[in-house]
Amino acid sequence: MIHDCKAPVTRHLVLVRHGQSVANRSGLFTGLLDSPLTEQGRREAEAAGRRLAECNWRFSAAFTSTLTRAVVSGRLILDALGQPGLVPQSFAALDERDYGDLSGLDKIAADARWGAERIETWRRSYAEAPPNGESLRDTVSRIVPCYLRTIQPAVMGGDVLVVAHGNCLRALVMALEDLSPAEVEHLELATGSVRIYELAADTTIKAHWIDG
Questions:
Q1: What integer pLDDT is reported at residue 3 of this predicted model?
Q2: Has 75 been labeled as part of a binding site?
Q3: Which residue among the candidates 3, 12, 18, 165 is catalytic per the annotation?
Q4: Which position among 3, 12, 44, 96 bears the catalytic label?
Q5: C or N terminus of the chain, fewer CB within 10 Å?
Q6: Sign of the CA dihedral 73, 185, 103, 116?
Q7: What percent of the chain lies above the pLDDT cut of 90?
Q8: In a domain, 71, yes or no
Q9: 195 among the known binding-site residues?
Q10: Which parts of the sequence bind substrate (predicted)?
Q11: pLDDT at 6
Q12: What is the b/e burial string over 48-62, where b = at least 16 CB atoms within 10 angstroms of the residue's CB?
């Protein structure tokens, strides 16, 4: 159950990772590749929407990345909520972290080329970037301005849904929860998972809770 007692204050930010993509299922480094949802991924997005609907969530605004797996997940969630008329705004700043030369490779191929230890460092660390790609720090540097400029003001006016990607959302969660680089290395966000934040009038985080 996602928080069965929603507070009367209506300044909430709901973050959802998209459902499973074809590249996720194949174990590929996806990044900016525009991989569509699998049937399981569609079910995961619909299930997230149903869980939110059970708690009577209604959104005044919604945002997604520009990538198909997030856009379609957002639409499925809003359909499950009975809000098909709410059209999300899509921003490239919410696109997944660019995996550069790792994009489209599976772990076996990547390990063979660069070594397992180096691959794990690129995957999980804050500051290290794969060749021609982004580090998590780089991702933070584009996500946070988008949040402050566009998403946070929307939250001040009502409950807001954001549907995006694992590393993109790790970057945003790092900023929202003031996580250290060491702490964010261990943060995992499953496909279809939901994180909810309640903001105070001064925009600080009053509370947060997690589903999945």
A1: 54
A2: no
A3: 18
A4: 96
A5: N
A6: negative
A7: 92
A8: yes
A9: no
A10: 17-24, 30-31, 69, 96-99, 107, 123-124, 166-167
A11: 52
A12: bbebbbeeebebebb
Residue 18 among the catalytic residues:
yes
CATH of the domain at 153: 3.40.50.1240
What local confidence, expressed as pLDDT, does residue 211 receive?
A: 81
Nearest CA to 122 out of 29, 36, 37 is that of 29
Q: Report the domain count for the chain.
A: 1
118 CB burial (10 A radius; 0-12, 13-18, 19+): middle
Residues contacting residue 128 through CB under 8 Å, at least 6 positions apart: 121, 122, 135
User: What's the pLDDT tens digit per position in 85-106?
Assistant: 999 999 999 999 999 999 999 9
The answer to whether 188 is a known catalytic residue is no
Q: Has residue 122 been placed in a domain?
A: yes
The answer to whether the beta carbons of residues 70 and 18 sit under 8 Å apart is yes
Name the residue range of residue 183's domain.
Answer: 12-211
Q: Is 157 annotated as a binding residue?
A: no
